[in-house]
Design goal:
The complex is a heterodimer of chains A (375) and B (87). Chain A is of the alpha+beta class and 375 residues long. Chain A has five domains: 68 residues, Alpha-Beta Plaits, CATH 3.30.70; 65 residues, Ubiquitin-like (UB roll); 56 residues, no CATH class; 69 residues, no CATH class; 53 residues. Chain A is built from six helices and 21 strands. In chain A, the strands form six sheets. Chain A has a five-stranded antiparallel beta sheet, with helices on one face. Chain A has a four-stranded antiparallel beta sheet with strand order 2-3-1-4. A four-stranded antiparallel beta sheet of chain A has the order 17-16-19-18, with no helix packed on it. Chain B is globular, with a radius of gyration of 14 Å. With 87 residues, chain B is mostly beta strands. Chain B has a six-stranded antiparallel beta sheet, with no helix packed on it. Chain B has a single domain, classed as Immunoglobulin-like (Sandwich), CATH 2.60.40.2000. The relative contact order of chain B is 0.21. The chains are: A alpha+beta (375), B mainly beta (87). The interface between A and B is medium-sized, with 17 and 14 residues.
């Protein structure tokens, strides 16, 4: 056990000659020949590096190399038990530090306010040790020092101190931004139900989008003005309309599906490469875009692509009467898009204007809806 | 300190004792063979060990032979040593 040796297994022919050469530099112990070409021997632990080189130089194959002895044993223990000791130390450190709070988190309020509370809590923590922190005392302190806090609960979770806050909520009538109610649509007011605020319009008035409907204040019998959040239900007839123009004779461009792409590589708007394409189309449309050739390139190479789409120009002669119903339906569908949930359609219809080879269908839907919205 | 080989040399000092410097073999109870002055092993097996010496070759036969130690000019052989021949 106390002799520090390296055990070596080798394979090869003419081992005697090799051994004679090896023993000139290294002392060999316990040489055993297991087979003609297979043997095992020991060398001093200090020679373990040298012997590898010598065996290779002698043309022998090194099958295995193991160590024994006190130094190796101690080294092994150090390596194995060192890891175990490291784990034990880490666990011990973890258990020790687990008794401390290292982070304070504040939930339920805005970032600025939470920062304020966090600093306050950190300043008022008597210790970072969990057992010495009184969450009840901290709760009382936070509640009494911050007006915007209506309730607070503090708990230690893991190594974090969680401060959960509920903000004070002011009554809706008091809290607000005091903005007037404005009309969201053009329309004719048919019914008003004022809840809060001062009316600026009357039934029968025609209003436009953006007009003020209810002002954000009330005046009492003494003439004192109080700011309030205006609230009212203002029902109006609202008109939604869409128009479609039909030309009896028109020219349209249609892409044939053929295209040609011209590629240019630019360096600071200087042309470096061009694929020299010829555009053989009689009529074409152009789409063009430029992009970086590669990202993270020091030189600002750009690639410019110009796509030429061949088009065909066709003349269309289509009498209005042939497509009238379809156009009216199309106009209706386009108008219906603007409808919202719970809108009540009172009336719908269209007008037709014509002249100069074109017909204009104007489709109108009359709705009854609350144009005051809600604040 | 007592030196076995010096003692031997002293005892035969009247004759030419140069040959004493060639090689030495000590066989202890047929179980251990110490050799100094070898010039390289030529055969190693469990039953045989052969090595060169000055002006010749020595073959050791036995059973369960283990070359316990081998240096450039000494060796220690363990096992049941049954025969030693000088050629």
């Amino acid at each position: 056990m106390f002799k520090n040796r390296t055990i070596i297994k080798i394979k090869g022919l003419n081992q005697e000659r090799a051994l004679n050469n090896i023993t000139r530099q290294v002392k060999i112990y316990n040489y055993k020949r297991e087979e003609h070409s297979l043997s095992q021997f020991e060398v001093d632990f200090k020679d373990r590096t040298k012997i590898k080189k010598l065996i290779t130089e002698q043309g022998l194959e090194l099958l295995s190399i193991t160590h024994k002895g006190l130094i190796y044993y101690l080294k092994n223990i150090f390596l194995r038990y060192g890891i175990v000791a490291g784990i034990i130390l880490t666990l011990a450190f973890y258990i020790l530090q687990y008794n401390f709070v290292y982070k304070v988190e504040v939930w339920g309020v805005s970032k600025e306010e939470s920062q304020e509370v966090k600093i306050f809590v950190e300043d008022n923590m008597t210790s970072n040790m969990k057992s010495r922190i009184s969450t009840n005392d901290l709760e009382i302190l936070v509640r009494s020092n911050f007006d915007f806090v209506s309730s607070v609960s503090i708990a230690i979770v893991g190594q974090s101190l969680i401060v959960n806050l509920n903000q004070s909520v002011l009554p809706e009538e008091i809290e607000g931004n005091y903005q007037p109610i404005v009309s969201k649509y053009d329309g004719l007011i048919t019914k008003i139900n004022l809840i809060q605020g001062t009316l600026n319009v009357n039934e029968g008035d025609i209003v436009q989008k953006g007009d003020i409907l209810v002002l954000p204040y009330t005046t009492d019998s003494d003439g004192t003005v109080y700011e309030v959040n205006p609230k009212a239900e203002i029902i109006a007839d609202v008109w939604l309309s869409t128009s479609i123009t039909h030309y009896d004779y028109r020219v349209e461009k249609i892409r044939t599906g053929k295209s040609t792409t011209k590629v240019e590589v630019l360096l600071n708007n200087l042309l470096i490469y061009d694929n020299n394409v010829d555009i053989a189309y009689k009529n074409y449309e152009i789409e063009c875009y430029t992009e970086e050739l590669t990202k993270n390139l020091i030189l600002p190479f750009k690639i410019k692509k110009t796509i030429f789409y061949e088009i065909e120009i066709i003349e269309i002669a289509q009498p209005f009467e042939d497509v009238k119903d379809a156009i009216i339906e199309e106009a209706r569908q386009k108008t219906l898009i603007f409808l919202e949930e719970n809108d009540i359609i009172l009336n719908e219809g269209y007008t037709l204007d014509e002249g100069g080879g074109c017909h204009i269908i104007n489709y109108t839907i009359t709705l009854s809806k609350n144009i005051g919205g809600e604040h | 300190m007592f030196n076995f080989f010096d003692e031997l040399k002293n005892k035969i000092s009247k004759v030419d004792n140069n040959f004493l410097n060639d090689y030495n073999l000590i066989n202890i109870s047929g179980k251990l063979l110490y050799v100094e002055g070898h010039l390289g092993v030529t055969i190693i097996s469990n039953e045989m060990l052969a090595f060169k010496v000055k002006k010749g070759r020595i073959v050791v036969e036995g059973e369960e032979l283990v070359l316990s130690e081998l240096t450039e000019n000494t060796l220690l052989l363990q096992g049941k040593i049954m025969k030693m021949e000088i050629f």
